[in-house]
Design a protein that fits this description.
By secondary structure, the protein is an alpha+beta fold. Among the domains are: about 200 residues, no CATH class; about 110 residues, no CATH class. The chain has 11 helices and 30 strands. The strands form 8 sheets. The protein has a 4-stranded mixed sheet with strand order 1-4-3-2, with no helix packed on it. Strand 12 and strand 13 form a beta hairpin. Helix 1 packs antiparallel against helix 6, helix 6 packs across helix 10 and helix 8 crosses helix 10.
């Protein structure tokens, strides 16, 4: 039976308040493997919670994916308890233990209060820097080869002037000079990571013993867009940035989706509609006959809205009793049809739909996990149905990986495009991403635009049309634009310049190429028979419109 501290750890983790440094990831992944020996169960747990995909867990340590804190906090404490804490023996241990409490708390606060879910970099390491980093880390741990100084701590990204190595705690971003880093500069990065890892473990230990408290993140005052702009046609301009505190009453869940002239917001058992540039929303649809969670939404050219949903017969039902369905609702909010997805769910799996798109023919494209092809019973990554819900085809990525968390959208040419990547290879962990059109007739990928994102870009979570470019992408590394045929995409908004918290934020792409973020800084929780639910507090929610220019 868990004690009160363990309950508190998991409660904090469930609220996604903790972030684990990248240097711990190998140890953490070993722990997670022991905790989740049955990968099939892990996959279903992920799908049930609408969180990590199987490939995402598999690649977590190598590719820096978004960490799920419910296991990481516990893993960090397990590492402490088992005596495998970060500090090495001898001189390194002495160096770590020499830090005073104020320094430890400072390192810990950088982890705990960051906007980001992983480390960010103003540029990637070069090939030779990677090799030297590994060798220098060995020398640091085994030979006490320490730097003469420390990296510079920044208050804002614009404070970095291109010299030396620096770190911005607000967005966990390392800034490197354009030129090849010296051994001293690399050692400063290594030293920082060791101290940060040690501080995380030490502070967790102190909190567990009641000797310290978790820091309170600073609540920044939101500078909203002026009322004159919001009342003008400027809100419809593709280059217009907007910051709009929410005045509606919907407790947002995980899904927002852009329509042609509005944004659809999902809560439990309700969908609202919000006009572009508005701060308020109105009820669009709540005619659900069961307890319902909306997983994904999209709108077709006729204005009909499709919703992928999980439904339970009653509030006491367990998560494994959920039903997967797709609802079609007309533009007036009237239910047209319900498509039962049970025939498409693979044996022993719980189906999950992450992204949806509708092409000009009315075909519905579903980015899925746990669903199968009707033809050969094989699990598929993209399922294509007609508007009535009849099976059309399933799409295979062939030599390319189609991660469920990857984006799906319609391009300017009317084709549906999806993110593609390379399959995980422990001997070659570099993550290479691109996009490909979907050939519905053949059930394969069509036009391929591969390796167009910077090396080790983590994820393209949204693929959408751009206003002045063919595509706009959003993912954990920032907002990118891309024109078909170009050698590479352009990062127009790096993640470390994000206007709001980047991890866990809800996002969608407007037809004009802007990315809209719905960010909430405070939640309430509710205990149910099926587990704990989290609801965003409306007055703590704000919408950010960022141009994809």
């Amino acid at each position: 039976m868990r004690d009160k501290w363990e309950d508190m750890v998991f409660d904090m983790a469930d609220e996604e308040k903790m972030i684990m440094p990248l240097t711990l990831s190998n140890k953490i992944e070993d722990t997670l493997c022991k905790l989740k020996a049955d990968e099939g169960m892990a996959q279903d747990d992920d799908a049930r919670r609408g969180q990590s995909a199987p490939k995402r867990r598999k690649n977590m340590s190598k590719r820096g994916k978004k960490w799920k804190k419910s296991l990481l906090l516990a893993a960090a404490l397990m590492i402490l308890a088992s005596g495998t804490a970060m500090a090495s023996v001898g001189a390194v241990r002495e160096r770590m233990e020499a830090m005073n409490r104020r320094k430890i708390e400072s390192y810990f606060a950088q982890i705990y209060t960051t906007k980001m879910g992983h480390d960010n970099y103003n540029r990637p390491y070069t090939g030779t820097e990677k090799e030297r980093l590994e060798a220098l880390n060995d020398a640091y741990e085994k030979e006490a080869n320490f730097p003469k100084g420390e990296l510079t701590m920044l208050d804002a990204a614009e404070d970095y002037k291109g010299r030396g190595v620096a770190f911005l705690g607000d967005t966990t971003t390392f800034f490197f000079p354009d030129k090849e880093m010296s051994d001293e500069e690399l050692l400063r990065v290594i030293d920082f990571m060791h101290k940060r890892d040690y501080s995380l473990a030490k502070m967790n230990e102190m909190v567990a013993a009641g000797e310290a408290q978790m820091p309170e993140p600073d609540q920044e005052e939101i500078e909203a867009t002026d009322a004159e702009t919001l009342a003008s046609d400027a809100v419809y301009e593709p280059e217009q940035r907007l910051v709009i505190p929410y005045t509606g009453d919907l407790e947002l869940d995980q899904t927002v989706a852009a329509g042609r002239n509005e944004i659809f917001l999902a809560g439990w058992n309700a969908v609202h509609k919000m006009e572009i540039g508005s701060s308020d929303s109105e009820l669009f649809f709540d005619d659900f006959d069961k307890t319902t969670r909306i997983l994904a939404m999209c709108q077709d050219t006729d204005g009909n809205v499709y919703m992928a949903v999980w439904q339970w017969a009653d509030e006491e039902a367990q998560p494994e009793q959920m039903e997967l369905a797709v609802l079609a609702v007309d533009k007036e909010g009237k239910l047209l049809r319900k498509i039962d997805m049970a025939p498409y769910i693979a044996q022993g799996r719980q189906g999950y739909i992450r992204r949806m798109a509708v092409d000009g023919n009315g075909y519905l494209y579903l980015k899925t996990a746990g669903l199968k092809s009707i033809q050969d019973e094989a699990e598929c990554e993209i399922l294509v149905l007609d508007k009535e819900g009849a099976y059309v085809n399933s799409i295979s990525g062939g030599e390319y990986a189609l991660d469920i968390l990857g984006g799906l959208g319609v391009g300017k040419d009317g084709k549906v495009y999806t993110q593609i990547g390379n399959y995980y290879d422990p001997d070659n962990p570099e993550n290479m991403l691109g996009i490909a059109s979907v050939d519905t007739e053949r059930g394969t990928l069509g036009d391929i635009y591969y390796d167009i994102l910077p090396e080790n870009t983590i994820m393209i979570d949204i693929v959408a049309q751009g206003a002045q470019t063919d595509f706009v992408f959003w993912g954990y590394d920032g907002i990118f634009t891309y024109n078909l045929g170009d050698e590479s995409a352009v990062n127009v908004l790096p993640a470390y310049e994000a206007p709001c918290d980047w991890e866990g934020v809800r996002a969608c792409a407007l037809p004009d190429g802007r990315i809209v973020f719905a960010d909430c800084t405070e939640y309430r929780t509710e205990e149910t028979a099926g587990g704990k639910r989290f609801y965003s507090i409306p007055e703590k929610t704000c919408f950010y419109y960022e141009p994809g220019m």
